[in-house]
Amino acid sequence: MSTTTSDLGQTGAREGKSGRSTNARREAMWGFIFISPWLIGFLVFKLLPTVATLAFSFTNMQLEITNASFVGLSNYQAMFRDSMTWHSLGVTLKYGLLALPIGIFVPLFLAMLMNSENLVGSRFMRTLFYFPYIIPFVAAIFIWQAMLNPETGWINEGLRAIGIQNPPNWLNDPTWVYPALVLLGIWGIGNFMLISLAALQGVPTELYDAAKIDGAGPVRTFWNVTFPMISPVVFYVLILAVVGLFQYFIVPLVLNQGTGAPGGATMFYNLHLYKTFFTYQNMSYGATLAWFLFLIILVVTLLLFWSSKYWVFYSGEARK
User: Fold this and answer.
1) Contact at 8 Å (CB) between 304 and 239?
2) What is the 3-state secondary structure (H, E, C) of the chain?
3) CA atoms within 13 Å, Cβ hemisphere of 236
4) What's the chain's average pLDDT?
5) C-alpha span between 170 and 315 (Å, rounded)
6) By the 8 A CB rule, do 247 and 96 touch?
7) Is 315's pLDDT higher than 50?
8) Residue 16: pLDDT above 60?
9) CA triple 299-271-266, angle to 5 deg
10) Distances, alpha carbon 128 to alpha carbons 118, 137, 146, 187, 214, in Å
11) Is the model's pLDDT at 96 over the cut of 50?
12) How far is CA 7 from CA 1, 18, 19, 137, in A?
């Protein structure tokens, strides 16, 4: 029987497909081999503890209890009745109302200054603003604790030098402790500043030329040209800032050894969670608090993503 040209073509196509599928399987196998250390680390140190904490939240698991029993939703009911839960959440939100706008717009303002062609020494200033970000955070906290000392701190000494005889007791006054924490946070905004600066340098210069021809002033140019073009980066920084706010923990722990002083004003939610886990060793209730925090962050993040369609502009799509 003779072999036609079409038969040979079909046979060659099948062999080609078989060869490609074999290569694809081989590449996939080696890909999984190379990423297997990360996969193992993710499963063992991320996914498994996460699932375990979810299981703990439905038990009465504590370090001194060897046989934990299922208690259903009792931990969640106790959490909603716990006044400390709502107090710590209120402390976090109160601080966030002050810290979030400053932590987003101050780096953006500095980035705009650094992006100015008329600023002398802008490259040196960029480096100078970024330096505090690479300093170990605990060391930075101790530095600021000394600077904010009401008697010998540099800040209060400077305020007395300009005529303010009764400067704030920054870290021991519930009224002034949040501005003090914001000051400490502003010191490390170099990372967000560089991200914003990169976004600003990516704005096409012809848009500024067109706005200038149309007679737009600096404010109008910012809102109609600059902000829409950098809005994805602002959105990214906002998401990071919100997640960081709900995870705010190290500063109040180091400053006051986790006591929440002054007067419970620094008992942030994450600090309350930490003390429940490791001080009171109530693993099940701590896991419940952790999952409640996860749900809060998830809801807030989803709301931010929903709102982004009204104010975040992406190139190539119509703005709503």
Assistant:
1) yes
2) CCCCHHHHHHHHHHHHHHHHHHHHHHHHHHHHHHHHHHHHHHHHHHHHHHHHHHHHCCECCCCCCCCCCECCCHHHHHHHHCHHHHHHHHHHHHHHHHHHHHHHHHHHHHHHHHCCCCCCCHHHHHHHHHHHHHCCHHHHHHHHHHHCCCCCCHHHHHHHHCCCCCCCCCCCCCCCHHHHHHHHHHCCCHHHHHHHHHHHHCCCHHHHHHHHHCCCCHHHHHHHHHHHHHHHHHHHHHHHHHHHHHCCCHHHHHHHCCCCCCCCCCCCHHHHHHHHHHHCCCHHHHHHHHHHHHHHHHHHHHHHHHHHHHHCCCCCCCCC
3) 13
4) 88
5) 45
6) no
7) yes
8) no
9) 100
10) 18, 17, 21, 11, 37
11) yes
12) 12, 16, 18, 71
**Which of the four pLDDT bands, split at 50, 70 and 90, describes residue 311?**
very high
Which tokens is 42 given?
């993710």
**Letter for the amino acid at 47?**
L
Largest interatomic CA distance in the chain: 109
What span, in angstroms and rounded, lies between the C-alpha atoms of 185 and 102?
A: 9
Chain centre to alpha carbon of residue 224: 27
**For residues 264 and 133, what is the distance between their CA atoms, to the nearest angstrom?**
28
**The tokens 């074999």 sit on which residue?**
22
Q: Please report the pLDDT score of residue 1 as a whole number.
A: 46
Backbone angles phi, psi at 59, to 5 degrees: -130, 180
- Return the residue matching tokens 């980035």: 111
Nearest to 298 by CA among 242, 235, 249, 250: 242
The C-alpha atoms of residue 57 and residue 200 are separated, in whole angstroms, by 46
Residue closest to 182 by CA, chosen among 151, 129, 144, 208: 144
Q: 155, 167 in Cβ contact below 8 A?
A: yes
